[in-house]
Amino acid sequence: MTVHQWVPAAHHGDAVGDNARALRRLFRRLGHESEIFALSVDDDLRDDVRVWGDPESRQGDITILHFAMPSPLTAAFATLPGARVLCYHNVTPPAFFAPFDAGITRLTCLGREELESLVGRVDLAVGVSEYNREELEDLGFAPTGVLPLIVDTSRLRQAPPVPAVERILQDGLTNILFVGRVAPNKKIEDHIRLAEHYKRYVDSYYRFIFVGRYDAVPRYHDTIRALIAEYRMLPDRFWFTGPVPEAELAAYYRNAHAYVSLSEHEGFCVPLVEAMAMDVPVLAYGAAAVPETLGGAGVTFAPKDLEYAAELLGGLIYDLPFREGVIAGQRERLHVFHPSQVEPRIVGTLAACGLSDESGVVRA
After folding, report:
1. Rounded to whole angstroms, how far apart are CA atoms 94 and 105?
2. Complete DSSP assignment for 290-311
3. Which pLDDT tens digit goes with each residue over 215-256?
4. Residue 94 C-beta-side C-alpha neighbours within 13 Å
5. Are strands 83-88 and 124-127 parallel, antiparallel or unpaired?
6. Is the CB of residue 241 less than 8 Å from the CB of residue 211?
7. Residue 262 to residues 177, 179, 186, 340, Cα–Cα distance (Å)
8. Which of 261, 263, 264 is nearest to 316 (CA)?
């Protein structure tokens, strides 16, 4: 059987592309032919991912479209002769972007319109979380299921040290980490407000680190910088690193005292799993798919009381029994994301489209 995957773009470090490559490894191990096709491919991935214009992209017995943004792939996907599987990674609601970028707002509106255009035109619609599956069901998709993400945390756990970065991170300040795009749904402004409470009530020796692209929504980043100035906080206590190599990302996790997520819209949130795998205690606002991903691990809170969150953050960092208990819970939760648990679920979900375990490698 041939199982192909379509992605809008192939970039290193992109969660959608990383998951597609992990799925391809699984499909090949199961004895199936499998390729990934993308509209745009980074130069260093051209030997790994094929261009979507290749006629072979339309010859899959099963084709999986990874949907996270509007693209010409959507209309073409609906006409394929083989089994069509929509894998929904979520589209951020336009309202988050409306105050900052009209272009991205329109793009997210188009994304949601394109998603709805596929209702009744796919053989199976799956979300990477139950949260996403429920959204598909609400839109009218049937049948639906969950195709869990394969999260490779070994690349972080086994990454070599980066002495130049780690020396700076070990200067005595408390490192509070966030990983991901600096985008309005991530509510980075609330991290700044949290820092103000933390400084006032817990500890003034802190550093908030934001690892990930910060130039996607320039007006939003400017708003965050303005808020730091408004609170008269030390600018060097807020690091916006931009994208970093894998070894550096691992160094930030290794030297983080806590991981904080205040996002208000997530379809899964891979960094939560990465933080748990690196034994970084997690503090997260319990919105969208975040509680599902954490599954009772870490510390979640709602409503969004940032003064209370600052107290929780202080406990995670300085209350050693509390901290150790949270880390122990996170280690237990990681079992759910182990390939031995995830891969049989993937095979079971796609069995409706004819996928089978031909190799005997995976057993449900």
Report:
1. 5
2. HHHHHTT-SEEE-S--HHHHHH
3. 999 999 999 999 999 999 999 999 999 999 999 999 999 999
4. 13
5. parallel
6. yes
7. 12, 11, 6, 31
8. 261
Residue 332 has pLDDT above 90, yes or no: yes
Nearest alpha-carbon partner for 74 in 45, 44, 116? 116
**Cis ω on the peptide bond leading into residue 143 (within 30° of 0)?**
yes
Distance in angstroms (rounded) separating the CA atoms of residues 6 and 78: 12
Question: How do beta strands 299-301 and 50-51 pair?
Answer: unpaired
Which amino acid is it at 212?
G
Q: Looking at the chain, list the stretches that DSSP marks H as alpha helix, in order from N- to C-terminal side.
A: 15-29, 73-77, 102-117, 130-139, 154-157, 163-169, 188-201, 218-230, 246-254, 270-277, 290-294, 306-318, 320-333, 339-350
Q: What is the spatial order of strands in the sheet that 258-261 belongs to?
A: 238-242, 206-211, 174-179, 258-261, 282-285, 299-301
Q: Residue 137, class by beta-carbon neighbours within 10 Å (0-12 exposed, 13-18 middle, 19+ buried)?
A: middle
| pLDDT higher than 60, residue 364 | no
Between 15-29 and 339-350, two packed helices, what is the crossing angle to 10 degrees? Answer: 80
* Token pair in block for residue 239: 């690091």
Closest CA to 141 of 84, 73, 92, 94: 84
Give Cα 277 to chain centroid, integer Å: 14
H/E element holding 125?
A: strand 124-127
Which helix (H) or strand (E) segment holds residue 176: the answer is strand 174-179
pLDDT in tens, 279-305: 999 999 999 999 999 999 999 999 999
| SS3 state of residue 122 | coil
Question: For position 357, what pLDDT does the model report?
Answer: 67
Does residue 356 have a pLDDT over 90? no
Q: How far is the C-alpha of 320 from the C-alpha of 324, rounded, in Å?
A: 6
Of the candidates 282, 275, 221, 236, the one whose C-alpha atom is nearest the C-alpha of residue 252 is 275
Between 363 and 213, name the one with better pLDDT. 213
Task: Look at the block and give the residue holding tokens 């995957």.
Answer: 5
Helix (H, G, I), strand (E, B) or coil at 51: strand
Instruction: Write down the pTM of the prediction.
Output: 0.95
Q: What is the DSSP letter of 352?
A: G
At 78-107, the pLDDT tens digits run 999 999 999 999 999 999 999 999 999 999
